[in-house]
Amino acid sequence: MRVVDVADGDPLLETLYEDLLVPSFPPDELETLEWVRDGLAGGSVAVSAVLDDAGVPEAVAVGEWDAAGRVLLLSYLTVRPRARSGGLGGLLMGVVAGAWQERFRPLLTLAEVEHPLAHKADGERGDPAARLRFYARHGARALDIPYFQPALRPGAERVHGMLLLVLARASGTGGERPDTVDPGPVRSFLEDYLLSGEEHRADGPVLRMRDALARPGGVRLLPLDDVRALPLSVPDGAVRP
Fold first, then answer.
1. What is the C-alpha to C-alpha distance for residues 12 and 19, in angstroms, rounded to an integer?
2. From which domain of life does this come (predicted)?
């Protein structure tokens, strides 16, 4: 097994997208192949993959860089079903914690993942509970924000029941209280993300997210061991599972 970085124009990208990303993520959660290509060309997207000895891709990670807020988002990380629990996800997390940090120098490194209470396990797409345990082993904690993924393009839907995890943070990004982060970079990232993905309407889910960012002392960081204690976004009128 070897880890490779995917460059702009690399023909491997289409294979990674069609063979690994498309089966692993629902359409509303997945950016288009053109989006990934444009981001690679412009330097705002990073793609790293694990290839077997024959050059067949077994795992991939896609990151998005928000230069304005200096926030790096691990948008996607997936391992082919036959290769799961074999350490390949850990190899890619090593890239996120190493080479990607050197390249971008982010204030915060985040990841968006499905909340186990809102999304069911699937043989192809994986188990949200197991995924959360994986990130917990790598030191991640959840931001205490009822997060939803915005609509990624016209015709797509918001994805509620998501968690925004902190994978790494630079010194000086702590809040006023222990186990908190400065809301500034998070707010900048979320405003850019929402504005780029959908009409920025001030409905209930948006207002609840803004309220969480305005709490005194910073945004709390929560351990991942008790899923019922983690924030959960729901559409207006819906009941928390």
1. 11
2. Bacteria
